[in-house]
Amino acid sequence: MDYFSPLWQALPWSPWIPFTADKHEFRDIPREPGLYRIRPVGKNFLMYIGETRRTVHERLNELRLTLNRSELMPWNDPHTAAPSLWAWKDAEGFEYECSGAPLDADINGRRGMECFLLYRYRQERGESTLCNFGRFHPRYRKSTNRKEKLRGGKLEADQKDNPAGGTSYPPLHPAGKPGDPDWMGLSWSTGKNPYCSYRPGPVCPDRYWLTGDHLHRPVRELCKPVARPQQEIMGREGTGIFFSQRGENDPPAPT
Questions:
Q1: Are 38 and 61 in contact (CB under 8 A)?
Q2: Which residues have C-beta within 8 Å of that of residue 195, sequence separation ≥ 6?
């Protein structure tokens, strides 16, 4: 399993450190901005892959303290993965360990690498991590942000499963290159200039990509539902920006 390797994707990953480690052992987590990965102890899959502009040590230390001391599901902020990690721990008895890697890059570089790691994990494992992309335990509802004060928890027996707990769609196989009409084996529409007249199609959980001479947009932000792509990118600096939407008959967007 390459995604457990200390050299995964040529990054200098730290050793795997348990969330229950004392502060001296936890010093092995990098004290620079970068990336991190979380897995359940004794399992062969990852729960979460993330990036942070703070130090990786600070981010992970805050997360582990939140999970270790919380009898109730944590809020969705400041760490959006905390409720999902808590739900899986509560349901399955998972204990977690983590590994971090420093990355000297700006926010776009870190997010780009985060997306690349998620992509590589999907290719290697055949599914997404359990806590990225809004995924959640099927028998739990998620806490809101602290300001909204709606605490999540386990669903009652007569309540329907949380749809965010569905099966991960298999990864797409590499094919073509960005801009091709059949990139990744999907049927893409012809590129449209959003500064011209555009009649949006039905709102659907699909994907779109953007191209342009002056476009500096993180990969993560390209993976959004195609509700109103024109509104999403109107007003950006520069010209020559185009977007393209997946075909309605293509497979569902991966989660």
A1: no
A2: 234, 239, 241
Write the secondary structure of 3-64 as one string of H (helix), E (strand) and C (coil): HHCCCHHHCCCCCCEECCCCCCHHHHCCCCCEEEEEEECCCCCCCEEEEECCCHHHHHHHHH
Distance CA 127, CA 50 (A): 17
pTM for the structure as a whole:
0.79
Give which of 249, 191, 199 is closest to 215, Cα–Cα.
191
Interatomic CA distance for residues 23 and 151, integer angstroms: 30
Instruction: Write out pLDDT tens, residues 14-61.
Output: 999 999 999 999 999 999 999 999 999 999 999 999 999 999 999 999
Closest to 29 in 3D by CA, of 97, 99, 81, 114: 99
For 185, the token pair is: 């084996």
What long-range pairs does 90-94 form, CB within 8 A, spacing at least 24?
Answer: 90/140, 90/154, 91/137, 91/139, 91/140, 91/154, 92/40, 94/40, 94/41, 94/43, 94/47
Residue type, 13: W
